[in-house]
Amino acid sequence: MIRLQRVTKRFAGGTEALHNVSLRVDAGALAFVTGPSGAGKSTLLRLIARLERPTRGRILVNGQDLETLPRRDVPGFRRGIGLVFQDHRLLLDRPVHANVALPLEILGFRRTEARKRVRASLDKVGLLQKENASPQTLSAGEQQRVGIARAIVHRPALLLADEPTGNLDPALSREIMELFLDFNRVGMTALIASHDLELIAALGRPMLHLENGRLEARQQPPAGKPA
């Protein structure tokens, strides 16, 4: 599903966010990208989503070489990806159901089909009863769940999440991670950036650790944990 081959990303001014990174995440897998702030986790996800382009190296997602992907085909490529952000990025002037429906509006779904998908996504994250609420009335954990429902409403093959539990307490963080595990169990590939090593270790999934833009040795789940 995801392959990076000797990828380097250098920004204007000479800052090197990633250096010579090679990795592979197979279809149907769930893996975590770990590392301190500034290690390159967000840059890595943005490169995979084709929101940034590498300075050098090769990135393939589902067999598609992103370097040769024509500009006109980028929107179609991104339709196969769900993105979850730490800061939710909800539209405060729209109720919950309208926030979740936004990707379907962009994709041109019929209203009846969009309505069914929105309700199904909200039900998956346990917020169906809040579909008419304003995002401003929700807790931080509920707002993150709305962001996740929006990311999966179009049923993407790949989910990318950037520090999705960064602002949540340990109990809520665990609940959010359990949602990602549920999605993965039904076949969705997921790559999640997080600095919460204790929580990730308890989940027993592979970890890709970044330090100063360099990929350290891949860490395997502890013995007895599901891979």
Key phrases:
Rossmann fold; four-stranded antiparallel beta sheet; six-stranded mixed beta sheet; 10 strands; alpha/beta; 23% strand; 7 helices; single chain; 227 residues
CATH class of the domain at 1-78 and 189-221: Alpha Beta
Q: N- to C-terminal separation? A: 17 Å
pLDDT averaged over residues: 91
Secondary structure: number of strands: 10
Helical segment tally? Answer: 7
Task: Please identify the structural class as seen in this structure.
Answer: alpha/beta
Could you list the spans in which at least 5 consecutive residues all have pLDDT below 50?
222-227
Element-by-element helix/strand order: EEEHEEHEHHHEHEHEE
For the largest sheet, list the strands in their spatial order.
6-7-8-3-9-10
Our estimate of the beta-strand percent is 15-25%
* Biggest sheet character: 6 strands, mixed
Known CATH architecture of the domain at 1-78 and 189-221: 3-Layer(aba) Sandwich
Please name the CATH topology of the domain at 1-78 and 189-221: Rossmann fold
Task: Please give the structural blueprint.
Blueprint: E1 2-10, E2 16-25, E3 30-34, H1 41-48, E4 56-61, E5 64-65, H2 74-78, E6 81-84, H3 96-107, H4 111-124, H5 140-152, E7 158-162, H6 170-185, E8 189-193, H7 197-203, E9 207-211, E10 214-215
Parallel strand pairs: 3-8, 3-9, 6-7, 7-8
Antiparallel strand pairs: 1-2, 1-4, 4-5, 9-10
Helix pairs in contact: 3-4, 3-5, 4-5
